Amino acid sequence: MSENSLAIRKFSDLANPTRFLALADRVLPWFAALTALFFVVGLWLSFTTEGDYQQGETVRIMYVHVPAAWLSMMCYSVMALAALGTLVWRHPLADVSSRAAAPIGACFTFLALVTGSLWGKPMWGAWWVWDARLTSVFVLFLMYLGLMALNRAMDDPARSSRVSAVLVLVGFVNIPIIKFSVEWWNTLHQPASVLRLDGPTIDPEFLRPLVVMAIAFTLLFFTLHIAAMRNEIWRRRVTSLRRLAARSAGREA
Amino acid sequence: MMSHAAYVFASYGIATLTVVGLCLWVIADGRARQRELRELEASGVRRRSAEATTGEPR
C-alpha cells in the first residue's frame, strides 16, 4: 500500500479528514438503516406494551423523555472528549466533532425538557418546577446555545477551537451535577431507576421498550453526528478554497 | 385539562418534528456544501492536495 492509501488501520489514521470522509460515506447508510430499524421496533413496543397501573398512558412519554435526556448528557460528554482532543492532542477532527455535536445536543436537550414538561403536568400537576434536576438540565441547554453562538461568532476555526474547547471542559462540571442532582438534593424529579448500582428497579415491561428506544436514539445521534462532521469538513474546505481563489485572483489583478 | 393520551401524542409529535427537522437540516446543509464545492471546482479552484494526486478525493 502506498503512503496515500485511504485505508484506516489505526485510530490516528482518522486524523486525516479525507480518510474520515471516505469512512463516513461507507458507514452512514448502515447507521441510518440500523437507526430506522431500531426506531420501528422501539415505537412498536412503546405503543403496544401495557400502561402503568398508576400513571396510565403517560408512562409512554418515558420512552422518548429518558433517551433524549440520556443523549443530552452523552452528547456533551462526546464534546468534552473532543475538547480534550483539541487541547491535548490537537487532533484535527476534534474541533470538527465538537462543533458538529452542539446543535444535535441542543435538540435532544430541548426534547428532554419539553417531553419532561408534558409528563410533569399530568403527573406532578406542574409544567415546570425549579428543582435541581430540571434547573441543571436547563443550564445544559443554555450551554449548548452559548457554544453554538460562540462557534458562529468566530470565523476562523483555528482561533475559536481552543476557546470553545476550554468552555466545553469548564461546562462539563454540570454533567455529574445533572446525574447526581436527584441524590444530592430533595427533588420533585424521581431518582435513577435504570442505571443503578443495585440494578434497574423498573419493570421489564417498561424496560424493554425503553432500552430499544435508547439504542435507537443513540444510533440516531451517531448517524447525525458523523453526517454533521462531514458537513463541517466540507464547510471548511469551501472556506479555504474561497480564500485560495481570492488570493490567486488578487495575484492576477 | 387535557386527557392523558393528549400529553402522550403531544410528546411524540414534538419529538418527531424535532428529529425530522434536525435530519432535514443536516441533509440540506450537506447538499448545500457539496454544491458549493462543485461550483468552486467547476470554476477551476482546486485544493493543493487534490492537484498533487489524481483529482479531488471527495
Automatic annotation (TrEMBL), chain A:
InterPro entries per UniProt: Cyt_c_assembly, Cyt_c_biogenesis_CcmC, Cyt_c_biogenesis_CcsA/CcmC
UniProt GO molecular function: heme binding; heme transmembrane transporter activity
Similarity comment text for this entry: Belongs to the CcmC/CycZ/HelC family.
Subcellular locations according to the entry: Cell inner membrane; Membrane
Transmembrane segments: 27-47, 67-89, 101-120, 132-151, 163-186, 206-227
Membrane topology: Multi-pass membrane protein
GO BP annotations listed: cytochrome complex assembly
A Pfam cross-reference name: Cytochrom_C_asm
Ranges of residues in domain Cytochrome c assembly protein: 30-189
Function: Required for the export of heme to the periplasm for the biogenesis of c-type cytochromes.
Gene name per UniProt: ccmC
Main location: membrane
GO CC terms of this entry: plasma membrane
Keywords: Cell inner membrane, Cell membrane, Cytochrome c-type biogenesis, Membrane, Transmembrane, Transmembrane helix, Transport
Superkingdom of the source species: Bacteria
Record's protein name: Heme exporter protein C
